[in-house]
Amino acid sequence: MKSERWAAIEALFHAARELQGEDRVRFLSKECGGDDAMRGQVEALLRGDERTEGILNTTVPRMAINARIGPYEVTGWIGAGGMGEVYRARDPRLSRDVAIKLLPENFAEDASRMHRFEQEARATGQLNHPNILAVYDVGLQGSTPYIVSELLTGQSLRSMLNGSAVPTRKAIDLARQIADGLAAAHDKGIIHRDIKPDNIFVTSEGRVKILDFGLAKFTQPAGDSATVKPRVETQRGTLMGTVTYMSPEQVRGENVDHRSDIFSFGTVLYELLTGRSPFARATAADTMAAILKEDPPELTIPGIPAALWRIVSRCLEKSRETRFQSARDLGFGLEFLSGEVGRQGTVARRPRLLRRRDFLWAVAGTLGLGVVGTVVRKLLTSSEDPLKLELPTPTLIATWDTRAEDETISEGEISLDGKFVTFFSNREGQVDIFQIVIGGREEPKNLTSSFPGKHRPSPPGTVLRNLGFTGDPLRIWFSPREARATDSSDNLSPNTEAKLTIPFGGGAAMSILGENTEAPSWSPDNKRVVYLKTQPGGDNLFIADNEGADSRPILEDQKRGMHNHNPVWSPKGDWIYFVRSEDPSFARADDVTVKANIWRVRPYEKSIPQQLTYLNVPVNYLAPIDDRRVLYTARAEDWSGPWLWVLDVETKNRQKVSSVDQYISVSASGDGRRVVATVAKPPTGDLSSVPVFENRTAKDSDLKPFPITTPRPHAPRFDAQRKSMFYLSPRGTVDGLWRWENGESTPVLNEPDVPLFEPPAVSRSGTRIVVVVRQEGQRHLYIMSADGTNRNRLDSSITVQGSAGQAVADWGPEDKWIVAGGSDGTNKGLFQIPADGAGKSVLIYSGPATSPVVSPDGSLIAYSTPLVAGQSELRFVRLDQGPVDHLPRVLVRPGGYRFLPNRNCLVFLRIQQPLDFWLLDLTTGTTNRLTELSNKGRIQTFDITLDDQIVFDRTQEHSDIYRLDFPK
Amino acid sequence: MSNEKTDVTNLLRAWGSGDRSTEERLWPLVFAELKRIARHHLANERLDHTLQSGALVNEVYIQLADLHQTQWESRSRFFAMCARMMRQVLVDHARARHSQKRGGHRLRVTLSDNVAISESKGVELLALDDALKRLAEIHPRKSEVVEMRFFGGLTAEETAEVLNVSRLTVIRDWNFSRAWLQAAMNGEDVDEE
Prior knowledge:
The complex is a heterodimer. By secondary structure, chain A is α+β, with helices and mostly antiparallel strands. Helix content of chain A is 17%, strand content 34%. Chain A has 5 domains: 48 residues; 297 residues, Transferase(Phosphotransferase), domain 1 (Orthogonal Bundle), CATH 1.10.510.10; 116 residues; 129 residues, TolB, C-terminal domain (Neuraminidase, 6 Propeller), CATH 2.120.10; 278 residues, 6 Propeller (Neuraminidase). Chain A is elongated. Chain B has one domain. The chains are: A alpha+beta, B mainly alpha. At the A-B interface, helix 1 and helix 3 of A face helix 3, helix 5, helix 6 and helix 8 of B.
């Protein structure tokens, strides 16, 4: 064949491909003239083009395995359909497998269409019905939109049918589920527009999932014109729509409503029962004619009840006025029928060999289908291992459009009735309390934006809850914060305020429960409240009526330093679970070495508590989900996490149920069926420097990025000459220690089983480093050379105290000794530890003290009191003369202070927002503010160069709130 | 293996920077690795082996090239080369299996349905290979487009880059080739006057 002729055929093919039906025929007649051979070739090609089966149609993935689609990692290729390709992928943030549909490349050409599509996809995402594919997320990969949804196992109705009918009873069951899903969507005003066997998925458990809700709209030309274009091309030439299941009004190109879906549903039900679709003809044009004019061939298959046939015909009425007017009615009809078919005793015709499944069907025959589900579930659950908890797929709540980049959401709490959620978020700058109605528009409303100082919410804590629902789902309680500007340091008084409650929806706050009370929790029947009272000896549990009156102690610890935190009720209200921790030296310290455990107690006076776990790690939030199981958040023994765990309170066994995610908090509804969790994404951050000015405060414009190329550098520490800097940076899954010198970073210590959390202590000469290593719930000091070799335990009698992530030790002059806050088993305080291992450690200050830093000349040591109730105070001690009292008392971030190298001054980070650097002149005792920075992340550690540049880290934490619905 | 990996990485780097003299040493190594990986997957009855061939090529790439050490611009060209080899590997496999089946291994009946599926896929693959050869005679570039996209898993952009044509051309070529191949495999007369 000549090449010109080839070119002509190809051109005709491409042009004809864009046309449909009559238009195409006319085009070919005109262009080919009498050249039948040419026309034959083009038509053969067009037939080839329309084949959707076969090897070439299931191929050409656009994404490679391991590639990323947005944040998702592609792990497999599921297939291609009309609406794009489907991949199996992993959401690393939630460590769950998802399905991602990558839409055709030309889908998003039109920005407004893309916008509408996103809106629609989000609306669909909120449908939340068991018979509708759950959509988690939509996004853009380059310019190609993708949809993230739950990953299903099973098959499409198309492949299930495969040209043959399914048994009547099964057909009715499937149809009923489809109708249920449709009804739920129609209720929300969402129409599918492309109901067909390819878009209906049947999971391996037999559950119907309707796919691609609302998508079809976007595959059709914008604006409903009179021209029907049922077939839309992808660039890969797959067929996106099929006319076979279209309603008459769709064929006519009219506007459609939900009754169009009912017609399409009718064609699917017909096909389920007969194995063929009612209007399928040889060509699209004939099919369309049949849809408009012909009655479906009558169902003549024996065993199909007349009532079922009536249902099918009513769906397939040409006029939408005479069809079923709602999917709900249709569902009722089918439900009624399913009982009928069951009773007709088709069971008798089943094979003799009754397998388990058949047995169940036989039961179905006698009981009616509806009951079977319950029976089966009962059978399954009773034999199930309680720890084999299948975590329901988390659904992102509050997927509002303007989600802030570095938003931190914490303490997500759900109401007893499971309908309302409240949480802390910094999305509007400062921490505020937000509310959401589940299943509504899920638009968060700020409840505290207008609250003045005294009534502002306390920042969220991971030790004690600061926020929750009262027994009245329309009232929220929270811990207020009292700010009093008493002096230049804006002193904060300890948080002894009574709890406040505010109405859901916003309004004036009311006081409840009196002073020194914490973490109240209302019983599922809203008759009682349990809470803790902080008292000198520790925290004790009290119970009162739901208004807080008639208060009685249920757990009083005689032992000092026992803390009983975050009590919650069991779903039946017969137990109270709580976290109990012991730390004799610090009142309510969020010390990492606190050993916390889950206990429970009966809600009566003087009942005996039961210990349920034996852990060496902090446990934070508890959420009982049934009589036996409690979900909780805690770190693992290797200090990874925090994870979500499940505890079987009968066997006291526990099991980690999350794998990658950092679960910050968890809360369950009264019946335990709905759980709300806040989940952290990996933090981001950088190092910056800012000069210490003599005469003015530094602003954002004075900031310079510190040139480090490893990811999220933090916890910087220089040697005395400022030649090398040591810092932490993630390598793999944990933070490793790095050295930065002459503009280059080299790893010093990077062992996955030695995760580092605290800033290193760098000796003055920069040749030796002290790091903190976690072992069996304790933290120990290790000393090593600057290249990570010669690692040895430093004074094995001493364990370290202080909050996680905060500096614990510092070096004295000439690399001779280290000072650290900790305990030697007898005493707690500051220890001076000889670096060479010779000689004994000396207790230089006895009392609660953390994070010492040593002045350049080695004579003065600054330290902070342990973080208690959000407060930590800067103190000083002279090596030879003991405590220094003449300096002002300022509140600091634990560990957030360093001496200026050349002046008798100390730079410190104030504890309260906004986070800024201040200067304390040690000669005069005056303080002044050094910086006025916009708040972009949390500053944890800093150090100062010889030319008075503060080098500091900033960490942005991101977290989201999810809900998890356990099946009933 | 790690030495070999370094070898390949160096060869790839040289090749990527235009040193074609490395090919003689490079491709046998790549081909061996490709066969190894493909055999592994085929032996494990990764059913839709043709579907996954792009993924396999990707795996080869990951296996061979030390990604951290390779600032390598010619990923697409490497994939294009692998696509050809992958076609070879898969076709050989299908052919071997096909003849084995016809050679009368009666035990086949005991195998699962899945194997049957993959066998029918194998037959289809042979048909495709055949049709592709015919297409190559008429329009070599179009057959290359199919080869790269189908066997190599290259995207339209990557294919365009390798063939030095526009992305739109690749898409048009693909649409046409797909129609042509499907017609041809369906027994239509599309390559003769």
